[in-house]
Amino acid sequence: MAGTFTIKALGEGQLAATKGTIYTTPGSTQTIVKTITLVNTTAGALAINLYIKSGATSRRITPKDMSLGAGELLESDRDYTLEAGDLIEGDAASATSVDYTVNGVEET
Known about the structure:
By secondary structure, the chain is mainly β.
């Protein structure tokens, strides 16, 4: 029997200056992340990092300290599959300077 699929905005906000959670897969749920969008809202380039954390280990999904230019947008349209409790984490060189959105599908 198939579960219930919900297409939704999984998260939105601004990256912190230290690694922080931007999405957590709820209990008894599986998630397919379809897009992650980052926008640098400042007048200068900033280093950004994104990770997927499963269990105790965070793994990078962007190059280390990837430069995102002033006013630029980065959109990842790679599919990421997450189990209950898995996280997407991120950080930027300057807090509240990079907006993010995360969109995908949750199955319960």
